[in-house]
Amino acid sequence: MDRITRRPRASAGNHAIGESNMQRFHEWFESKYADHQRLAVAATSLVQTVLRRKGIPYLNVTARTKTAESAAAKYKKTCYANLDREFTDLTGIRIIGYLPKDIRAACEAIREAFEVDEENTSDRSTSLGVDRIGYRSIHFVCTLGTHRHPLPEYEGLSELKFEVQIRTVLQHAWAELAHDRSYKLGRALPLELQRKLNLYAGLLEIADAGFETVAHEINAYRSSIEERGMRQLHSRGIDEFSLGAYVNSLEINHEVVASDESDDEFEVEKDMNTILAYELRAFGLRTVGEIEKLYTKQLKRDLAVRTKPYKAAGLLRTMLMHNDIHRYFRKCRPDWTIMDHDTFRILSQKYGGARLLDILKQNGAFAIDDHGQVMDNDAL
């Protein structure tokens, strides 16, 4: 990102605020307020759209338009000569991203989406200097741009200035604490307390950079796993990514069916690898190869009685229970309570129907038949 500077503004010590100036300000505010409220809604929608289209993750995007009281208080401190040009944050948009890389991407997106007033734009992280710790955030001053002027939904808005603040979650946490009057972290403090505060603020900076490094390493690890063949995966420890690769191999070999992205449960299924990795490790398995060893010839024969194809979670859990159902419930502590009829048929071939119902009952679970009715010994 190019170096960003901000022109110094007038202070209250340089200007006396007369009654006529305040009257001028209030008239200006009243004439602009309704349009700025519309601007806040329009700019928020545009920001969210551009972030989603570019695949930039973010925690949230919020907006506000200053109240008359808040705007007047700022005007008394600054006494802007040209309110349209200099009062740049009557409307403010805040983007909270996760990692520094998300912030960099969001900055590029803002520059592409809006016309940026470079003179009034600032990067607080660089303006602090290399030897200081404190509030870090990037503040863009923008307009919607002349290219939106002809569009009816932006009538009267395209030339209004607004501010876009972009910060990470941790930068936001620091800013909220520093500006909250009840904590008084932003005040002039005794040197020893200021030193402690600076140390903790520094930890947030280190954490920001550290999380970004770890995220990069996770992506690199995931890529390396995806490039490996199954033979190379056998010796890998069980985690979300190695398990995902194993599940993919089951899908390729038509052992299980893949989740359809249009399915309502697709998002839930994507998170299942983390849950399954925990259950597999709790069961005592350590590598992908040890999972494969549970896929025995006997299990494959027993699977022949199923009437519907399995998804990965169903097959992997059936593999564990077929190996040792008592160990599965004792070690894995699953959060499910209903066993479908296909799984019941498969496991009944090893444990017997009556015994399997008893095992399920002992562990707070039950089986259902093909009609969704709870099974008992009379149904066997």
TrEMBL record:
| Residue ranges of every copy of the RelA/SpoT domain listed in the record | 63-189
InterPro entries with a match to the protein in the record: NT_sf, RelA_SpoT
Which Pfam families does this chain map to?
Answer: RelA_SpoT
The UniProt entry, under SMART domains, shows: RelA_SpoT
- Biological process per Gene Ontology, one example term: guanosine tetraphosphate metabolic process
Top-rank taxon: Bacteria
- The protein here is known as RelA/SpoT domain-containing protein
From which source organism is this entry? Marinimicrococcus flavescens
